[in-house]
Amino acid sequence: MNQITNNLVSQAGQTQLSGIPNDTIQALNPIACVLLGPITQKLLYLGLQYHGVSSGPIAWMAWSFITASASMALAAGLAKLIYTRGPCYEFPTI
Q: How far from 90 is each of 52, 69, 93, CA to CA, in Å?
């Protein structure tokens, strides 16, 4: 989880932020988890129960790991897109 946050903070440091510090993403992460976590769980549980799918805690943990892995892969792909576009191209500022 820390690697995902570090990737996003590094990406934010390379973009134009209009005066917003790039560490703001670290403050938004817990807020998003608190707000979106219960909403997602309720919608997911209701959707699966509606379709007759029942799964145990190990399956939920596996799906959570898959989702976190996919988000890290998305962050890596987004970093590649940011670093290969102008004006920095392959040489981002340090």
A: 49, 25, 10
Q: Measuring CA to CA, which residue among 23, 19, 2, 1 is closest to residue 11?
A: 23
Block means of pLDDT (10 residues each) for the chain, length 94 residues?
A: 70 71 75 86 80 80 86 83 70 59
- pLDDT at residue 79, rounded to an integer: 77
Q: Which domain covers residue 75, as residue numbers?
A: 25-49+58-85
Work out the number of other CB atoms within 10 angstroms of the CB of residue 11. 19
Number of independent structural domains in the chain: 1
Backbone angles phi, psi at 54, to 5 degrees: -125, 130
- Give the pLDDT confidence score for residue 14 in this predicted structure: 67
- Quickly count: other Cβ atoms within 10 Å of residue 68's Cβ: 13
Spatial CA neighbour of 82 closest among 94, 73, 91: 91
